[in-house]
């Protein structure tokens, strides 16, 4: 409406006034003020409501509080209920200022007393009421948007897991970068828990697609996985249940999820992993040299080949090996200086460079994660378009001191 008035379109005014003399006075005052206005008149609240339904929508309603079918604030309430986004000015013969203020409190932008109004005051009141109404609507929309955004941020932040790992020879960290702009959660998901025997179970997965539906499905899978691990479920049973959850919870029958599940026993130096259509982990050695676990057999993603088993892959580890799980959002970014995808091998090389450059990252592996993601984004020429997640399980020799608490940090 404000934009319309700026183009000098005549103001559309709905005058709700049953008295012919008062209606004539209003039109005369507007003519004297030089106001370009299109006046539509209604004599009752019922007629005014019919005009609002029929359209076009007025810029302002000038409402007499003494009408045949509604008296006082009843008329204002009825009109305001039907026209919440239209400027409304009360026109009354009552000189009681308190009544005018009550009308403003009930939803009017202004009030005028018939015996005290002149052309300038009438013109100014109508124009100010229109602008004030626009400002109120814009302010209310902004508040609603900010409130909704904050509620979404709180919800999404609460859905990121706290990793349940407290192992004297292990430091764990994770980082999540959603592809959706300004969001905190997308289709990638991760988790890590430690069982009573000291074995650490970790998961990183990726639901196909982007958006809140995929985020919700990822959360369902993560919570189901954690519940199964805490209950001591076997890996094959865990995969079967996760696939059943996906099939029953997915909003699209073509939706699928890739995942990497690992079981790390630092005391024995052993790593068992299972892959369902997901990239293989990277192993970073004590000297910072990184390698992709290759030659792996994996089953298709969950939801693609229902019931197929994922073979267990045993990977021997040295005492300072770190395991890096990641989603393909990192490898699908562009390689430096070209349009080709980065790929698993290049990500491995980037991780190795950062591991050899940084000091103390095994005690605080989130520094390795941040450095690696930063290098990938720099090669990509900016933020990644797809969701990306990375989880690091960093081993330390038995003689090292106890690690700080495990970290699970959302993107800064």
**Beta-strand residue percentage:** 15-25%
The fold-level CATH name of the largest domain is Phosphatase 2c, domain 1
> How many angstroms separate the termini?
40 Å
Please tally the helical runs, counting DSSP H or I stretches of 4 or more residues: 11
Strand order of the largest sheet: 14-13-16-17-8-18
Q: What is the percent of helical residues?
A: 25-40%
The tally of structural domains comes to 2
Q: Please give the radius of gyration in angstroms.
A: 33 Å
Mean pLDDT: 85
The H/E string reads HEHEHEEEHEHEHEEEHHEEEEEEHHHEE
Query: Any idea what the shape is?
Result: elongated
CATH architecture type of the largest domain:
4-Layer Sandwich
Poorly predicted residue ranges = 1-6, 408-412
- Report the sheet with the most strands, covering strand number, pairing sense and barrel closure: 6 strands, mixed
CATH superfamily of the largest domain: PPM-type phosphatase domain
Question: Count the strands?
Answer: 18
Structural class: alpha/beta
């Amino acid at each position: 409406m404000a934009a319309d008035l700026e183009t000098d379109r005549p103001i559309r005014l709905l005058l709700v006034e049953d008295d012919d003399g008062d209606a004539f006075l209003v039109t005369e005052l507007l003519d004297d003020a030089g106001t370009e206005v299109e006046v539509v008149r209604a004599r009752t609240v019922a007629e005014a409501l019919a005009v609002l339904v029929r359209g076009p929508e007025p810029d302002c309603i000038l409402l007499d509080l003494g009408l045949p079918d509604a008296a006082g604030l009843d008329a204002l309430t009825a009109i305001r209920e039907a026209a919440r986004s239209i400027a409304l000015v009360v026109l009354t013969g009552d000189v009681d200022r308190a009544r005018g203020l009550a009308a403003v409190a009930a939803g009017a932008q202004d009030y005028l007393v018939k015996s005290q109004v002149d052309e300038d005051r009438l013109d100014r009141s109508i124009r100010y009421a229109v602008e004030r109404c626009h400002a109120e609507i814009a302010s209310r929309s902004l508040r609603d948007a900010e409130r909704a955004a904050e509620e979404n941020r709180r919800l999404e932040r609460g859905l990121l897991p706290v990793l349940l790992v407290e192992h004297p020879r292990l430091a764990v960290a994770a980082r999540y970068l959603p592809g959706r702009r300004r969001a905190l959660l997308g289709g990638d998901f991760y988790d890590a828990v430690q069982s009573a025997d000291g074995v650490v179970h970790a998961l990183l997965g990726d639901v196909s697609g982007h958006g809140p539906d995929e985020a919700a499905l990822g959360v369902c899978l993560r919570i189901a996985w954690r519940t199964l691990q805490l209950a001591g479920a076997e890996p094959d049973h865990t995969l079967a249940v996760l696939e059943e959850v996906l099939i029953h919870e997915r909003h699209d029958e073509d939706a699928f999820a890739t995942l990497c599940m690992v079981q790390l026993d630092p005391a024995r130096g052993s790593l068992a992993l299972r892959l369902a259509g997901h990239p293989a982990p990277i192993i970073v050695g004590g000297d910072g040299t990184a390698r992709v676990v290759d030659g792996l057999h994996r089953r298709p993603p969950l939801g693609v080949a229902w019931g197929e088993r994922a073979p267990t892959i045993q990977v021997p580890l040295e005492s300072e090996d770190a395991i890096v799980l990641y989603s393909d959002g990192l490898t699908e970014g562009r390689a430096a200086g070209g349009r080709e995808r980065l790929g698993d091998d290049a990500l491995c090389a980037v991780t190795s460079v950062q591991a050899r450059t940084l000091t103390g990252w095994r005690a605080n592996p989130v520094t390795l994660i941040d450095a690696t993601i930063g290098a990938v984004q720099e090669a990509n020429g900016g933020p990644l378009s797809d969701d990306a997640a990375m989880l690091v399980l960093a081993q330390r020799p038995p003689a090292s001191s106890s690690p700080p608490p495990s970290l699970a940090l959302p993107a800064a």
